[in-house]
Write a structure and sequence with these properties.
Blueprint: E1 2-7, E2 18-23, E3 27-28, H1 30-38, H2 42-49, E4 59-63, E5 72-77, H3 86-102, E6 107-110, H4 123-138, E7 155-160, H5 165-190, H6 198-211, E8 215-220, H7 222-227, H8 231-237, E9 245-252, E10 261-265, E11 267-271, H9 291-306, E12 311-321, E13 333-335, E14 341-343, H10 351-362, E15 369-374, H11 378-384, E16 389-393, H12 396-409, E17 413-415, E18 433-434, H13 442-451, E19 459-463, E20 469-470, E21 476-477, H14 482-494
Helix pairs in contact: 3-4, 4-5, 5-9, 6-9, 8-10, 9-14, 12-14
Bound molecules: ligand BES, manganese (II) ion and zinc ion (ZN).
Zinc ion (ZN) binds next to strand 11.
């Protein structure tokens, strides 16, 4: 998708479609009224007939108005002029995006930045919301279709006043970077497990680093992990013929001495459960078990494109979880890089086994904070569904900042406690800890497990098991929580 900014008068825009708000009470804003005047009242005639009332989410396409250059006018209900909230603004731009797709338009120009949003009307926020909504509506995953099903929409512009032009241009550049980071993350997630292997994740990181001079990449092989004594990560990889990779992608936007934000993404490119084999129903969706890794790559892509003065490191432990003859068995005990021993009571709790070594490894970056992102527990889907990611942290300020970033971007998270009392559930007869804590509070005990490897720094864990992809027939990766992470990182620059 090509995103751009236009200036000038609405009625003189050469576009297949101009998008205009209609507020409740059938009222047009300044741009709508000007267009209406040029078309000798054609818009107001339709509106006063009641074909569109201005309720949030309504749309109406008016083709061929005389007196104006745009070939069509897409009217979008925008609710009460004085009552447009962040939530209703998102509904408005989503309705516009869906209508553009439904009418198979190839190009459109929006005037919806003109809508004033209650409680902090911010151009950059509106631009992010609008651009990301358009990109999401037009997204298709076509790589394996012999006849691609594309949406027609390929060009989208925003109309800006002369005073706001420069601001909107910068906002669009940023939003475009965010949208393409989200898209990259979705593509990686949607790729099948036989294509998106640990090696594929490594190659994607290398390709990304080649595109941006501020990015550098290293890929550790299993021998390297052996040398680092990553016995826990390697124990998962043993069950598969695909070699594991430990990918490090570094973005340097600030000087060397500045501690980085470290993002650690679970990269299980297929999770069969291992010897504790999962049931067959819906198992294909376990190709999405690398969405944490994909969100790290998508976030670094967006950050590298935006270029803020801050340091960010991505760490991705990548492996398959399969039941080979050499696979870990329930009861096996492994030694993690931290020296702590783990009794593997369930080989399907593999995410924490690879993350713990990646978290221990992350201490070497002397991080400002470490945030891991993982499709870690089915229990998180039960608790929070697809609305919110599960957030756990050993630091209240960090947790608050991440929750706020999630609210701003509508990529929401909800905090769960890591109280000491939960830790007992991980007691093992034979090792320092078990890798599972029983049925109760499964998301929290997974977080408790990770907390034993993150004592040296401020840390947060985001469980995206319910938010990283949508299930069912139209299943697709969502690109969450890239928007949350990018917003958080940029907010740290200004802080
Ligand atoms: N990748 C899964 C978690 C998952 C399951 C995400 C379903 C999204 C949907 C993870 O590796 C896993 O299998 N977790 C187990 C942990 C259990 C054995 C303690 C789970 O949630 O069942
Ligand atoms: Mn599993
Ligand atoms: Zn898993």
């Amino acid at each position: 998708m090509e995103f751009s900014v236009k200036r000038g008068l609405a009625h003189q825009q050469k576009t297949p479609c101009i998008i205009v708000a209609v507020h409740a009470g059938k009222t047009l804003g300044d741009i709508g009224s000007a267009l209406d005047k040029r078309s000798r009242g054609a818009i107001n005639r339709v509106v006063s007939r009641g074909d569109i009332t201005g309720k949030v989410g309504e749309t109406l396409l008016l083709p061929d108005l005389s007196g104006v250059d745009p070939e069509r006018v897409l009217l979008v209900g925008a609710g009460n002029v004085k009552g447009v909230t962040a939530t209703s603004y998102r509904k408005i731009v989503n309705a516009a995006a869906n209508a553009l797709i439904r009418y198979k338009l190839e190009s459109a120009l929006s005037t919806l930045l003109d809508i004033k949003v209650q409680n902090g009307d911010q151009l950059s926020w509106k631009t992010d919301a609008h651009v990301c909504s358009i990109a999401a509506a037009a997204y298709r995953f076509n790589e394996h279709k012999s006849k691609p099903v594309r949406s027609n929409l390929t060009r989208f512009s925003l109309l800006a006043s002369d005073e706001e032009f420069a601001g909107v241009r910068d906002a669009v550049a940023r939003a475009r970077a965010l949208a393409s980071g989200i898209e990259m993350s979705r593509d990686l997630g949607n790729r099948p497990g036989n294509v998106c292997t640990p090696s594929h994740l490594a190659e994607s990181a290398v390709a990304l680093a080649e595109m941006h001079p501020a990015l550098s990449v290293t890929v550790l092989e299993e021998e390297d992990m052996e040398r680092l004594a990553m016995g826990s990560l390697l124990s998962v990889s043993r069950g598969s013929r695909e070699p594991a990779k430990l990918i490090t992608l570094e973005y340097r936007g600030s000087d060397e001495s500045k501690p980085p934000i470290v993002l650690v993404g679970k990269g299980v490119t297929f999770d069969s459960g291992g010897i504790s084999l999962k049931g067959g129903a819906g198992m294909d969706e376990m190709k999405y078990d690398m969405c944490g890794a994909a969100s790290v790559l998508g976030t670094l892509s967006a950050i590298a494109e935006i270029g803020p003065p801050i340091n960010v490191v991505g760490v991705i432990p990548a492996t398959e979880n399969l039941p080979d003859g050499d696979a870990s068995k329930p009861g096996d005990i492994v030694t993690s890089m931290s020296g702590q021993t783990i009794e593997i009571l369930n080989t399907d709790a593999e995410g924490r086994l690879i993350l713990c070594d990646a978290l221990t490894y992350s201490a070497r970056f002397e991080p400002e904070v470490v945030i891991d992102i993982a499709t870690l527990t089915g229990a998180c889907v039960v608790a929070l569904g697809a609305q919110a990611s599960g957030l756990m942290s050993n630091n209240d300020a960090l947790a608050e900042d991440l929750l706020a970033a999630g609210e701003r971007t509508n990529d929401r998270a909800w905090r769960l406690p890591l109280w000491q009392e939960y830790q007992r559930q991980l007691d093992s007869n034979f090792a320092d800890m078990a890798n599972v804590g029983g049925r109760a509070a499964g998301t929290i005990t997974a977080g408790c497990f990770l907390s034993r490897f993150t004592k040296k720094y401020r840390w947060a864990h985001i469980d995206v098991a319910g938010t990283a992809w949508t299930s069912g027939k139209n299943k697709s990766a969502t690109g969450r929580p890239v928007a949350l992470l990018v917003d958080y990182i940029l907010s740290r620059v200004s802080a």
